[in-house]
Amino acid sequence: MLFVALYSPKPGTTPAQALPRRMEWKPPQGMKPVAEYWLPNITPHVIVIFEADNYATIMAANMPWADIFDFSVFPAITGEEGIKLAKQMMPKA
Q: What are the domain boundaries of the chain?
C-alpha cells in the first residue's frame, strides 16, 4: 500500500540536527521508498512517499524522527488509480 509522510520540524530544531542522522538512516524491512522531497523554509519540510504492508513498518520508519519532526502519515493512491476508482463509482447511464 502507498503512503505519504509529511514532516515538519519541531520548534527549536534545525536541519543540522537531522542531516547526519538522515545520511546514516536506512529504511526498515518492509518499507519501499518511492520518493523523498526536501522543501526548505516551508512546512512540511520533508515529504516521503513509500510503500508498506503493515502498521509496524510505518512506525519503524517514522518513530526515529519523532524527536526532530512532527509527522503525519496518510494512505495514498496514484492519480491513475484514483481515476480508475472514480470511473467505477460513477453511475452507469
A: 2-89
Give, for 47, the enclosing helix (H) or strand (E): strand 46-52
Give the span between the Cα atoms of 58 and 40, in whole angstroms.
Answer: 24
One-letter amino acid at 89 equals: M
Cα distance from N-terminal residue to C-terminal residue, the chain: 32
* Cα–Cα distance, 64 to 38 (Å, whole number): 18
C-alpha cell at 74: 496518510
pTM of the predicted protein model: 0.86
| Helix (H), strand (E) at residue 61 | helix 55-62
> Tell me, what amino acid is at 38?
W
| Model pLDDT for residues 24-65, shown as the tens digit of each residue | 999 999 999 999 999 988 889 999 999 999 999 999 999 999
Give 37's DSSP letter. Answer: E
Q: The domain at 2-89 falls in which architecture?
A: 2-Layer Sandwich (3.30)
